[in-house]
Design a protein that fits this description.
With 70 residues, this protein is of the alpha+beta class. It has one helix and four strands; from the N terminus they run E-E-E-E-H. A four-stranded antiparallel beta sheet has the order 3-2-1-4, with no helix packed on it.
Length: 70
């Protein structure tokens, strides 16, 4: 997805999707490359981290197991 950085306020960037300029969404500035400014167009992608998901599920299952043993 491509989006334009509309403004940056208090560590939050307000972005406008290029394909739907009636919408807005926010991201922490820390999620953007360090040299981004208002007016820049950025590419945003979200990917699934299968390994981190598996690890989180394993930790949750271990916690549930420990609680059930009490």
């Amino acid at each position: 997805m491509k989006a334009t950085i509309d403004r940056i306020e208090g560590g939050i960037a307000v972005l406008i999707p290029r394909d739907d300029e009636a919408r807005r969404f926010q991201l922490p500035v820390s999620a953007l490359p360090p040299d981004c400014r208002e007016g820049d167009i950025v590419t945003i992608s979200i990917g699934r981290d299968s390994e981190a998901t598996r690890e989180a599920k394993d930790r949750a299952a271990a916690l549930v197991d420990r609680l059930n043993r009490r």
